[in-house]
Amino acid sequence: MEMDDQMESQKRRGISKDDLISERTGSLGCVGWILVILSGIFTFLLFPITIWFCLKIVQEYERAVIFRLGRITDRKAKGPGIFFVMPCTDSFVKVDLRTVSFDIPPQEILTKDSVTVSVDGVVYFRVSDPIASVANVCNADFSTRLLAQTTLRNVLGTKNLAELLSDREGIAHNMQSNLDEATDNWGIKVERVEIKDVKLPHQLQRAMAAEAEATREARAKVIAAEGEMNASRALKEASLVISESPSGLQLRYLQTLSTIAAEKNSTIIFPLPMDIISHFMKK
């Protein structure tokens, strides 16, 4: 906590992370240089044996942060390849630079509209500054995991259920920016955040299913009513056209007879023309 407070106060005063590490490194002092010289003499006298303790190797995806008498020797981490350390005064910490992924455990979250949901996710991050990841935080991996859980709760607490279900990409981007800003002093770069699953209570699932079914039924009824209305308008227009042309009515009558004759029916009903029926109705 004291280290984080110091970093925050230095940041307010305009001092960067590299300046703080450089200030923390400092000089070894007289006693420190005496010990380093004695260690060098000891290494030189027992050269065939101490060579195996002085040469270290780190892989391509690793970097080594060297401490000499408790102070960081250089503002840049060593590696990859072979590097030299003093046997008694130097120690080093290996830092893996590969991208690491971890699952955020399911979190019970109360949304903005007072709905309790269970949400989990996955975070991808890597170490961008090996020295800061060692000197500024005790355990960068564990700290990032805890911060991801609290950030998930904080971000989703400001969203309602509809936004949570429809805007997962925006929520993930918001989480990534918040995590990346918080872990910058730790030398951690958050590359990607994804929301994996959103689990709703069973009662809410049934209510949402019933609401969706009712919405679909209402939409189907509206579509059927619109179809009936359009069909009625078309029949009205057709009747107006036929009433203006008696010959058109005769052609329609003959077309109907040809359609009936094409079917294999034992009984055929011939409809009477409307002009004959109207003649008898007048009498």
Automatic annotation (TrEMBL):
<keyword id="KW-0472">Membrane</keyword>
<dbReference type="InterPro" id="IPR001972">
    <property type="entry name" value="Stomatin_HflK_fam"/>
</dbReference>
<feature type="transmembrane region" description="Helical">
    <location>
        <begin position="31"/>
        <end position="55"/>
    </location>
</feature>
<dbReference type="InterPro" id="IPR036013">
    <property type="entry name" value="Band_7/SPFH_dom_sf"/>
</dbReference>
<dbReference type="GO" id="GO:0005886">
    <property type="term" value="C:plasma membrane"/>
</dbReference>
<feature type="domain" description="Band 7">
    <location>
        <begin position="53"/>
        <end position="212"/>
    </location>
</feature>
<dbReference type="InterPro" id="IPR018080">
    <property type="entry name" value="Band_7/stomatin-like_CS"/>
</dbReference>
<dbReference type="InterPro" id="IPR001107">
    <property type="entry name" value="Band_7"/>
</dbReference>
<comment type="similarity">
    <text>Belongs to the band 7/mec-2 family.</text>
</comment>
<keyword id="KW-1133">Transmembrane helix</keyword>
<protein>
    <recommendedName>
        <fullName>Band 7 domain-containing protein</fullName>
    </recommendedName>
</protein>
<keyword id="KW-0812">Transmembrane</keyword>
<dbReference type="Pfam" id="PF01145">
    <property type="entry name" value="Band_7"/>
</dbReference>
<dbReference type="InterPro" id="IPR043202">
    <property type="entry name" value="Band-7_stomatin-like"/>
</dbReference>
